[in-house]
Amino acid sequence: MTKGVKRNYEAMPVSNDDAAFVRGLVIHEDSGIMAFNKPSGLPVQTRNPDDRTLDRLMAAFARSNGKRPRLVHRLDAQTSGVILAAKTQPAAAALSQAFAERQVTKTYLAVVTGSPFPEGETEFAMPLSRHIARPGLELMRAARPGDQQRQAAVTRWRVLSSNGSTHLLAVEPLTGRMHQIRVHLSIEGRPILGDPYYGGASTLAGAPVSRLMLHAASLDVPHPTAGGRIVLNARPPADFLAVLEAAGLEMPTDPAFGDLASGAS
After folding, report:
1. Which of 112, 167, 169, 207 is most deeply buried (CB count within 10 A of its CB)?
2. Residue 82: Cβ within 10 Å count
3. Which residues, in sequence order, are CB contacts of 99 under 8 Å at separation 6+?
4. Inside any domain, residue 4
5. Which residues pair with 130 in a beta bridge?
6. What CATH number is attached to the domain comprising 117?
């Protein structure tokens, strides 16, 4: 019996252009970790190892022994923002444990449409389950009686800026379910602008919205090698800021995000 060819995925090279591209995404690096500001549209990982993904682009940082940084969590392909990689196996193990034990605080910026929000902070709890929306497309929905593998899901949000019908939110997922923020806000009747799967509008004031308006702005995580905690902030990209400007929404001056408007991290 002939065995299938096993790809040496760790050693797959990237082009000079892709190496320059991924190096340009780095917002923090030290002896234990690297952080990137991932653009919308770049998948973190896919089933096809030949796809252009952030995981594959990690080969640009491979050492002479072939080892390279390892991503320790994920973002949806359409979501931009901060994502973290470990540079050593012990760092990867420590970070994976921190994520599993919910020792990591993730804060997102989301632009949503709908009626005004009540004042103050909202904590939204709704169990979710996976379902096949169409062949090849798995999404999440509010769990129904009889659904298998119901997953508890809790999301917290507050309004940072509003024009009455479009709102900029700070969103913190307290659990880590697939598409959690997107589906919870959709269930609440205020879907994220530009979300093709959960009812988000595709235009704003008649102009097309080319991306999902969800950005991972801040990550507060235990540092796996230096001790203590580190806060990593990722400035929203130009396309995100352009939609905010078109909606008349202001970027936050909020200690939770650092000075995102000036790009500090």
Report:
1. 112
2. 26
3. 72, 73, 176
4. no
5. 140
6. 3.30.2350.10
The mean of the pLDDT values for the chain is 91
Determine which one of 17, 18, 76, 239 is catalytic.
76
Q: How many helices (H) and strands (E) does the chain have?
A: 5, 14
Q: How many structural domains is the chain composed of? A: 1
pLDDT tens digits for range 12-65: 689 999 999 999 999 999 999 999 999 999 999 988 888 999 999 999 999 988
Structure tokens at 256: 């939770």
18 is catalytic: no
Which pair of tokens denotes residue 154?
């809790």
- Residue at 260 is within a domain: no
Share of residues in the chain with pLDDT > 70 (%) = 91
Residue-wise pLDDT tens digits, 221-257: 999 999 999 999 999 999 999 999 999 999 876 655 6
In a domain, 113, yes or no: yes
Residues spanned by the domain of 212: 11-248
Strands 70-71 and 137-142: unpaired
Q: CA 124 from chain center: how many Å?
A: 19
